[in-house]
Amino acid sequence: MKVIRIFLWLGVTFFVVFISSCTQTIESAVPSSSETPSLLVSSVTLTPSFTLSTDSPTSTIIPTLPVEEARAKLLKLLSNNSDCRLPCLWEITPDISTNEETQAILVPFSSISDLSVFKTEGGGILPAYSEGDLKIYIRLSYITDPNSDLVNHVTFNVEAHRPLKEGGYEEVFDSKFFGEKASSYMLPHVLSEQGVPSSVMIATSGGPLTRGGTGGFDILLLYPDQGILVNYTTQMHLIGTTVRGCPPNAHVEMELYPPGQSDSFSQSLKKTDWAVKMGYYKPLEEVTTMSTEEFYQTFREPTDKCIETLAKLWPVPEP
């Protein structure tokens, strides 16, 4: 089984399925121990841009920003998260922000979003920022509690892509521009802000890989007390018998929930596709020589250091 980290090709389907299935729990989707996972990074083919509007549950008309103003504001939010501490994102705080308040924050970006959906049960946007041939893609979606109209779950992704001559797009993990502009969500900032994670997990690929030994290397941080899951995807390097992943400029994926509800944190994740993804990860201490505390001390400040794990721990199944 392969898990491909691509989100923009989902289009309308993503939001329809995401919103309609948000209350369904995945109980039996974790792969058995006999299955050997492989996470490989592939090129990305994007669908044409389009915008879908739905009836707003509020009577307030929220204006969209002009394109250049929206781009500038988006870039600022990526770099400082609106001075908001996770799990607050762009001033959207789980268990505090209402649907109306969240729409007031997100609707203005519809002018630079491939898709904008807002309903009483939640919504989201897919804005993008271009710099030369590099494109930064963002996915931000949220779900509201039907009983209170408060946001109770926020999903956030930010990635860098570059077009391919033959068509489609490739994922980019070596852009300093991307790393700087999305610095508010990069590993050093999250560690310094949130402290030592309750656990760190790794997922990657090993063995005789095709395409010159390219693939994906994922680093997962869990903060149940804070209601935060953060996953970093970076380029995998196969060096002899070792698989290496370097966090700088990694792509970021987050699941954000109300803080102070650690008992329900794992149950909340089972309602997302992380119910499947978690089966591909292994604890940091089992597959590297680092402890969680050593990981924290190593990466809480910007560094070029990498994480290494033995390739034999991540065999690629025969086709």
Beta strands, count:
12
Biggest pleated sheet: 12 strands, antiparallel
- Tell me the distance between the termini: 10 Å
**Number of continuous helical runs:** 9
Give the oligomer, counting copies of the same chain as homo and different chains as hetero.
single chain
Following the backbone from N to C, one meets helices and strands in this order, namely HHHEEEEEHHEEEEEHHEHHE
Residue-averaged pLDDT = 81
- Total number of domains: 1
- C-alpha-based Rg, rounded: 19 Å
Strand residues, percent: 25-35%
Share of helix, binned: 10-25%
Spatial shape: globular
Structural class: alpha+beta
Structure, explained:
By secondary structure, the protein is α+β, with helices and mostly antiparallel strands. The protein has one domain. The chain has helices at about 10-20, 65-80, 100-105, 175-180, 185-195, 260-270, 275, 285, 290-300; strands spanning about 115-120, 120-130, 135-145, 150-165, 170, 200-205, 215-225, 230-240, 240-245, 250-255, 280-285, 305-310.
Structural descriptors:
single chain; 319 residues; alpha+beta; twelve-stranded antiparallel β-sheet; disordered N terminus
